[in-house]
Amino acid sequence: MSVCKLPAARRVTLALAPVVLVGIAVGIAVGMATVSIVAAQGIPRSAPQGDTVAIPSAAGSSSPAAAPAGSTNEAIPTKSLLGVLRDGGPLMIPIAICSFILCVFLFERCISLRRGRVIPGPFVKRFVEQLRGGQLDQESALKLCRENKSPVAEVFAGAVRKWGRPSVEVEQAVIDAGERTSNSLRRYIRLFNGVATVSPLLGLLGTVLGMISAFNAIATADAMGRPELLAVGISQALLTTAAGLLVAIPALIAYLYFVSRVDKLLIQIDRLAERVVGLIASDGWDEESQKSEKRSRRTKAA
To answer: What is the pTM of this model?
Structure first.
């Protein structure tokens, strides 16, 4: 029996998962700041053409020479993050929206997919022990499941509704409840995949528009000898590409992690549901009871 049709179980290390997710959020902020710093560094202004520096000659006279470029001590101009977003063009707005959506639903899924919320240990332990001890009937067991309202309680409730039926009917009820639970747990996960797919495409579109702007400057303003006219289009192309990748990479990591997390939780729910089916089905059997009976028999035989 299985709660739902699952692919092969992905065995991943989840011990450092909270650190990784926090690192993703911090990485987005640090990355945007890095883009701001890189884009904000301007070229120092060169000395005016009229400034000269006297260079002593062999005869002791001095001859004027042009001052080297960048010899002034002027501060490097900087830009704010808002200025960088403005320089990236209009496509930086949807990329920023994708970044905001990613951060919001990243924290939402981290809270919703905690094991203590999906499979609360105290409830599961008490529920199974009371079923094994015969302390629950169908109505009281269903009441406990409704009061808990966790995903594993919804699956248990589906099995309890078929109390006393053959194991095949109880298992089918568990499968149906598991499908609904699976859809609930996988909610918003496709959104991460969508952000990871759309953000690089927006960055690529911004790159194309930036290069079009640069070539238009060459065609209309004779910018071949004036690099400052080309800088606007090229800067827009690079900024949108960097911003798109900066959002897409954390989104893809979050998508892969949450898919694996949901699969692991569903497998655990499936194992717990098997125990409940064995306790309430008319032809079911309890694995723990069978093991205890075997141990008692071996003790008596000894």
So the answer is: 0.67
